[in-house]
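Progress against Task 2.4 (sequence-to-structure conversion) is shown through the following example record, which the project officer requested during the mid-term review.
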Amino acid sequence: MGKIQDDINIAFLRKEIFRLAWPAILEMVLHTAVWIFDTAMVGRLNAEDLSAVGLGGQLVYTMTFVFASIGVGTSAMIARFTGAGQQEKVNHVAGQSFLIACVIGLILGVLNYLGAEIFFFYIMRDSEVISMGINYMKIVSVGIVFMIPTLVINSALRGAGNTQLPMISALVANTINIVGDYVLIFGHFGFPRLEVRGAALATTFAQVCGAAITIGYVIWPQSEVKLKTRDIINFDINTFKQIISLSIPASLEEFSYSGSRLISSMWIARLGTLAFAAHQVAVSAESMSFMPGYGFSVAASTLVGQNLGAKREKSAEVSGWEAMKFSLVLMSCVGIVFFLFPQWLMGFFTNIKEVGDLAAACIKIGAFEQPTIAISMTLSGALRGAGDTKGTFLVTTISTWLIRLPLIFMAIFILGKRLEYVWMVTVIQFFLEALLMVLRFWKGQWKNIML
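Structure tokens generated for the chain above:
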């Protein structure tokens, strides 16, 4: 009889995992589609345009996602309070997080606008790339002001179990972005041909629209997370400290990951415009594989947090392992596609033969990353849902700063190897990162974290 009950619980958890995961996966599909179409359209211009958008965008979004990681602490707290049935605390955390996000968004937007010239003059030698990259960064910096509050409120909704609204917001915003790219980059339907500036304008307008949808929803009285004026303007130092305490490790983790990618991109830029453009194309294609991992990571984070809030530790643990299994199967299938059809995939992104050939070689190597990325992404989401943001930060710090960057530096500057060897390094990195995540989750110390 006990076994039947366990089977019923597992079946229910699997159903909940899919209920939460599929909108998050679709949301990731939509975000990825924007990057893919953006890269594909700019890739129809020339390698200089592609490098300008790739490098400028990487800096802007690295900084954005680092500081938007306060959404991790927000989601963990809201998941716990939702599981415990404490709605007033849910709303209060959301309001305080929104206030923090607005302040950070404004500061970061100004810094990116003012720092664009310094960044490109320091990194690049190609004057054409420098000029276009500066213009791109200055325009998209306006969108950061709206993007960070949107990301944080979306995280709050996911913690409460609503993954559908973030998906709808992404659907509208990213559709606007893609259409805007098409008409403004190439000058269709009577619009001027703006090329790189057109891509930046489309992105910024789309982010404003996404913010309007997400923030408009949480003002609605029927929302799972209600954004109330009193919870925003009445600053609560204790809640602020708790959000920051959970979020700082997550921000440092994002900085560790995204910052290392930015550093490695700067090193790859030293290999030449062709190598950098090929790397950007391959990374854009690789981003497709993150969709299942992201979706099941969100599901694991929400269910682990809510089950811990409801004092169901065993259900929380099973949720993490089950989500990981589904993610592993789906991402492995994507890896098979990468290995068997790399040239076909790269043909979608660029018609520059030299860029496409080199990118195809890289993505074929990247196929071997997929199973370990699935494990790492999903279990890190489960750990964050439990509030173990310090543990995931520790793991990514080891894999990034002690494995990834030293090996890439050796490959490029000491051994003088080509771009393909950089991608071989990432295969090693993600294997070791996945192993460490499994050990961290298996030990179960996250079950004792109090929020």
